[in-house]
Amino acid sequence: VVVLVVSQLRSSFTTMTSINYEELSSHLSEFVIIDVRQRDEVVEQGQLPGSHVLPVQELEESLGLEEESFKAKYGFPRPSPEDPNLVISCRSGRRVGVANEILQAKGFTKHKLYHGSFLDWAAHGGAYTKPGQPYQALQ
Fold it and tell me: Where is the Rhodanese domain positioned along the sequence (predicted)?
């Protein structure tokens, strides 16, 4: 019985697709990127171009908001559980796993996880932005 339960849990958590720097950077405008870091981290460190900040601590509650309330609070449309272009990012990849568990519990099945997140983006020299500033190349 335990083996069956573990097998079922494992299969439910292996459906998420990882995305790497090359895939993400070459199709950046096609994705809705949610950065689950705290807002002050994003202000200090920067963020991937076009990404939206939704701290992991707010993720579960935010997904229960009505569409209009979500957009008013976060500045972008509430993500759909079936959206194959949703990408989750953070600083180093740790919070991506936490966000993934929350998303799966809310019925999300098609999103992608950027395990390398901002540090990987920086290591590849990807351009970034800070709120209120133009894009910059990482040095």
Answer: 27-130
Q: What H or E segment, with its residue span, contains residue 72?
A: helix 67-74
Tokens of 92: 């180093």
pTM value?
0.84
**Active-site residue 82, yes or no?**
no
- Asked whether residue 2 is domain-assigned, the answer is no
Domain count, the chain: 1
DSSP H or E stretch at residue 66: none
* CATH number for the domain that contains residue 38: 3.40.250.10
| CA distance linking residue 127 with residue 136, whole number of Å | 5
What domain range is 87 assigned to?
16-123
Choice among 24, 34, 54, 90 that is catalytic:
90
What are 115-124's pLDDT values in tens digits? Answer: 999 999 999 9
DSSP 77-125: PPPPTT-TTEEEE-SSSHHHHHHHHHHHHTT--S-EE-SSHHHHHHHTT
